[in-house]
Amino acid sequence: MNTAIELTELTKTYGSRRGLTGLTLGVNPGEVFGYLGPNGAGKSTTIRLLLDLIRPTSGTARVLGLDPRTDAVELHRRIGYLAGDFVVDGRQRVGECLAFLGNLRGGVPAARIAELADRLDLDLTARIKSLSKGNRQKVGLVQAFMHHPELLILDEPTSGLDPLVQQTFLEMVAEARDAGQTVFMSSHIMSEVEAVADRVAIIREGRLVATDTVAGLRARSFLEVRIDFAAPVAAEEFASLPGVTDVRIDDATLTCRVDGSPDALVKAAARHTVTALRADSQDLEELFHAYYTGEAAPGPVAA
């Protein structure tokens, strides 16, 4: 199996409404793949297509080497899934619910359920209808992880969780990857997946706009540079340098933006007496939101 998930020109429309357009994407076995985009971008549509909960208008999907439509029963045994709108019978106690779901999968040891519940600070004796949104989300996480699936498909998994539990969840994801499991995780929060994702895809308005490692996305970001000189300098000397834009001069202080290597700027500045220099890289969250709004110029998309 060369890919855990392979999508080719996958498209889904709802009448005149766009859901997903020509999505081509590959997820490698054993990697954590962050699938990012704003609400309504097409993340949940993609996940439902992977699980054959809805059918594509055109294009193909292969999951764990299988066809989600013709091999759904076998495929679902090998997947742990957390829906973005996780709902279970509110009359059950948490432990009863998880035991029932485990039995549907052929049985999950009670010790495994108790271990995950303890890590997430989840009360197994509480009735589900009495739980807060965050605690209901913990139930969803336990049922997704408890049977050690080959592939975890998690739709907005940290919704409603407090920061401490979010950190525990990220540790669970890292442990799953270390055990050879594949994790496909959708989110609209870049910082949520930055610490654990091997690769990230950004989707906007149903279309893929970038796929890269976190380090690769960082390489696409720019520098905000401020240089203080001993004497005033001319803006024209710096404005024509490769990669340098938004040049502003205030007396003897230069500020600008640098895309790519700052080598040319540094060499030009060295012709003068520099008294101070500061370069701040663009925050990755800012870059992510630039892709959200279409303000970023996408680099090569490599699935």
Automatic annotation (TrEMBL):
CDD domains linked: ABC_DR_subfamily_A
Superkingdom to which the source organism belongs: Bacteria
First and last residue of the signal peptide: none
Pfam family, one: ABC_tran
Domain ABC transporter residue range list: 5-230
Topology class, membrane: Peripheral membrane protein
Keywords: Antibiotic resistance, ATP-binding, Nucleotide-binding, Transport
Subcellular location: Cell membrane
Record-level GO BP terms: response to antibiotic
Chief location: membrane
Keyword Iron: no
Keyword ATP-binding among UniProt keywords: yes
Gene Ontology MF, one: ATP hydrolysis activity
GO cellular-component term (any): plasma membrane
Record family assignment: Belongs to the ABC transporter superfamily.
Protein's recorded name: ABC-2 type transport system ATP-binding protein
